[in-house]
Structure formats: C-alpha cells, structure tokens
Design brief:
Layout: H1 3-17, H2 25-37, H3 51-74, H4 82-85, H5 88-104, E1 106-110, E2 113-122, E3 129-137, E4 141-145, E5 151-152, E6 161-171, E7 174-187
Antiparallel strand pairs: 1-4, 2-3, 3-6, 4-5, 6-7
C-alpha cells in the first residue's frame, strides 16, 4: 500500500473514532472531554506545492508581530525576540518607533489585528523571497502615557485599518522579515 493511501486510511480511522459512538450520554461526555483536552493539529493536505513555505513565512510574520507588540508594550526591545525575525531594515523601523515612544513617555496596550496574505513567493535562486500584504487593524492597539496609563487618542485623520506591504527572505531555515512598510493612504 502506498504511503499516501496509508495516510488516507489513517486519517479516516482517526476521524471515525471522533464521531461520537452510539450517542449515549457516556459517549457524548467522553467525546467532549477528549475534544476539549486534545486540540487538533491535523491539517488537510494541500494541492499547493508551496503551501508549507507560505505557512512558514506567515508564521515568521506572526512571530515578528508578537515580538514587536512586546517591545512596543515596554517601549523597549530588551527582553524580546524581535531580532530573531527582523533584518536590519525592518528592525530599524521598529527601533525608530521605540525611540520616539521613549522620548514621548508612551507605550502601547492591546494588539493590532491582521488579515495577511502571501502575494508572491520565489523559492528559486540563492535566497528565497516572499511578499505579503497585510490589512493592519490598529483599533484595539492604543498608545498610552507610561506614567499614567492615560490613552492618547488617535489623530483625527488616522485610518484604523490600512495596508502594509511586507518583504521576507529565507535565511537558512528561517524566514526573516526584511521590510514592513505601512501605507496609511491605502485603507482596507
């Protein structure tokens, strides 16, 4: 039996085991406990041969943002892993923001929302590259005065959702964000 066929049979067997039994309350309780205790990590197979790399670059982008949010919450890069996901250009942009925040005595609370997609992926050549487009939503990401916690209102002309163009490169086994350029004139 081929590996693909064996995998398909294994998935069907696993799924049939989750179907709930004879419907008794004991089966329902047991099924609910199992479902709550063990999150599913199985992902459907994709017909896209680049799917794994797209997933990897999106995970690197998520990690970049997680670390950036940590830095902005503290108004300091220390104690974050931002350098693990950002190259010099992307890191310089974040460091510039942090410097402004430190001088102004501000930090952030909450976190931005994202709707990001890979718009291009080139895996050939010496360095694989990717481009992403992100609809950044800052409505739940507030700037506050560090000493008082007072929320600073957004400027009246500040869009709360706008496009960010992102570039990434794969360095060894790690995708790195090389640039993240927000464009407040392009709302989404």
């Amino acid at each position: 039996m081929s590996a693909t066929a064996l995998l398909g049979v294994s998935v069907l067997v696993a799924l049939s085991g989750c179907s709930g039994g004879d419907g008794s309350s004991q089966d329902k309780d047991k099924g609910n406990q199992t479902a709550a205790a063990v999150p599913s990590t199985t992902k459907p197979a994709s017909a896209d041969p680049e799917a794994a790399e797209k997933t990897a670059v999106l995970q690197a982008y998520d990690s970049y943002w997680n670390e950036q949010v940590k830095a902005y919450t503290r108004a300091d890069i220390k104690g974050t892993g931002l350098k693990k996901y950002a190259t010099e250009r992307a890191l310089t942009r974040a460091m510039g923001d942090l410097l402004v925040m430190q001088k102004a005595g501000t930090a952030t609370t909450g976190r931005p929302g994202h709707k990001v997609e890979v718009t291009s992926l080139t895996l050939t050549g010496k360095i694989p590259k990717a481009s992403l487009r992100d609809c950044l939503d800052i409505s739940n990401w507030k700037t506050v005065k560090r000493n008082t916690g007072q929320v600073k209102p957004f400027p009246p002309n500040q869009p709360l959702r706008y496009l960010t163009t992102v570039s990434a490169e794969k360095w060894g086994k790690q995708w790195m964000i090389t640039d993240a350029a927000p464009d407040g004139t392009k709302t989404c």
